[in-house]
Amino acid sequence: MKFTAGASLLLLASIVSVNGFSKLDVIRLRRGFTPRMVALSPATGPSSSSSSPSTLPEKVEWTPDSWKQREAKQMPVYDNPAELQQAIDKLSRCSPLVFAGEVRTLHEQLARACQGQGFLLMGGDCAEAFAEFNVDHVRDTFRVILQMALVLTFGSAMPVIKVGRMAGQFAKPRSEPDEVRDGVSLPSYRGDIINREEFTAEARRNNPFNMVEAYHQSAQTVNILRAFSTGGYADLSRLHAWNLDFVETTEEGSRYRNFATKVDESLRFMKAIGVDTSSDPFRKTDFFTAHECLLLPYEQALTRKDSTSDRWYDCSSHMLWVGERTRQLDGAHLEFTRGIGNPLGVKISDKCSPEELIRIIETMNPQNIPGRLTIIVRMGAEKLRKNFPGLIRAVQREGKSVLWVSDPVHGNTYKTKEGYKTRDFDKIRDELRAFFDVHDEMGTHPGGVHLEMTGEDVTECVGGLSDVKESTLKDRYHTYCDPRLNGAQALELAFLIAERMRSRI
Length: 505
Hints:
Blueprint: H1 5-16, H2 23-30, H3 81-92, H4 100-114, E1 119-124, H5 135-156, E2 160-165, E3 178-181, E4 184-187, H6 201-204, H7 210-230, H8 236-247, H9 255-272, H10 280-283, E5 288-292, H11 296-301, E6 303-305, E7 312-314, E8 319-322, H12 332-337, E9 344-348, H13 354-364, E10 373-377, H14 381-398, E11 403-406, E12 413-415, E13 421-423, H15 425-442, E14 448-452, H16 487-502
Parallel strand pairs: 1-2, 1-14, 2-5, 5-8, 8-9, 9-10, 10-11
Antiparallel strand pairs: 3-4, 6-7, 12-13
């Protein structure tokens, strides 16, 4: 595709539309008009026959602890109820990690994405760990997500909503409640928020006070993210320079170099026509957090009623999702999430039938509010091509408003002969290609991608330009749970997705 001024203006529109300017303003700029700032209220969003994003299901029987009347899967058993209550009481007195106004801002952006006016990028660790926490680790993952977002913004010509699997992604579901080694059986490791990885009775004890430690680490992480997102670290020129560092490692004339050249030309064009790229829309960004809603005592303890709207929000995170193993229609996790005002996600595999999906949607989003519910699809390429069209047809037939997001990593995990759990980059790419192919066939919007990744140079997933092989997995295999894409692999995927989205414009 040849470079055009129109491409630059689309990039400009996509970057600033979530920071105050609309795409119409950029069209006016092309015609010689001066852009105006647009103040958005919680009710502002795409027109729809459905309720507005700020409307919540009115379920009078719901309370923050009504989930206790349902069966809760994947929950740890605590051997000291008094300690558990003490930990919950401490959390209940703690400050919120996020605030209702921030949650509503994310909801508005997701509502636009539901209408095909945005793309959701979710990424971060499989499971955060106490021992791994430091500022550099948070910064590196944040940086790569911003780099990916810049590439995706240019490729899609629409705003990219940036959400980190951070500041709360501690708990992990497990296939078995216990782990056996050499005839010794101990509780399975469920993430640092519950117990510790070391295979000792003391470490594997489900300790409720780990929730308090997880809260304090999350508070630090949120503060770091806020500082980086508003303090100039997200400067557009800096992000592009980092992306150029990546493409320098690729072959001369590669698709990555060609794509980066187009982004570079667009930025030069914007500066040439007088756009001030040192202003706030180009130096600051919205960045949100999300994690799996798994450990319900923790989530309940951080649930607060907003004084301005009189609605309940889980203030542990801006967004929460329910996993494949805990999305039972009569289960505790759907009961808890249906009553909170946060944007929600639910993960589905090929095990989910169209009929079940509709019932899940009606439970989690009964008023059909745009931006309320994201469907995160994880199947593997072959199963996705077979099963995904039927799910889309069911949603279309019932007129449901959802955002479709691909999780291409979970369905492509395998174990090597040496015992390393890993994922193949080519398989991940194949599932993403299938995701876009199905949306092209159905005429629907591919709304986002959800990745387990890190900004660090780990060797946990094989393939990609970083050329990780099964034989080199041992070099820097640091994950506390599932294998993550390293920074180069994640950025390479962003270039591939952007290239595919560019072809849809």
